[in-house]
């Protein structure tokens, strides 16, 4: 069994780095596109191109990898992210269970 994610997309906003002790944690949002489907068929625009829908993915990179991304990449830059899915669950102040999913990056390729 393997938990592996590979995404190619553009960075939606400047990466942000915070520190937890000596660990640097860099977060950014990656935007990918997927074809727009209606009744199981791709939708084409008037020019004949396939219409797409944007999907937003939360990515977290640690230490040197994250620091490098934050230093060298900015909004709009194209990258490939390889990593794994990480699921979180917590209870908010009102006692409601909340869930989140993120990609923990193991490699970020600058394209």
Automatic annotation (TrEMBL):
<dbReference type="GO" id="GO:0006260">
    <property type="term" value="P:DNA replication"/>
</dbReference>
<dbReference type="InterPro" id="IPR012340">
    <property type="entry name" value="NA-bd_OB-fold"/>
</dbReference>
<dbReference type="InterPro" id="IPR000424">
    <property type="entry name" value="Primosome_PriB/ssb"/>
</dbReference>
<protein>
    <recommendedName>
        <fullName>Single-stranded DNA-binding protein</fullName>
    </recommendedName>
</protein>
<dbReference type="Pfam" id="PF00436">
    <property type="entry name" value="SSB"/>
</dbReference>
<dbReference type="GO" id="GO:0009295">
    <property type="term" value="C:nucleoid"/>
</dbReference>
<keyword id="KW-0233">DNA recombination</keyword>
<dbReference type="InterPro" id="IPR011344">
    <property type="entry name" value="ssDNA-bd"/>
</dbReference>
<dbReference type="GO" id="GO:0003697">
    <property type="term" value="F:single-stranded DNA binding"/>
</dbReference>
<dbReference type="GO" id="GO:0006310">
    <property type="term" value="P:DNA recombination"/>
</dbReference>
<keyword id="KW-0238">DNA-binding</keyword>
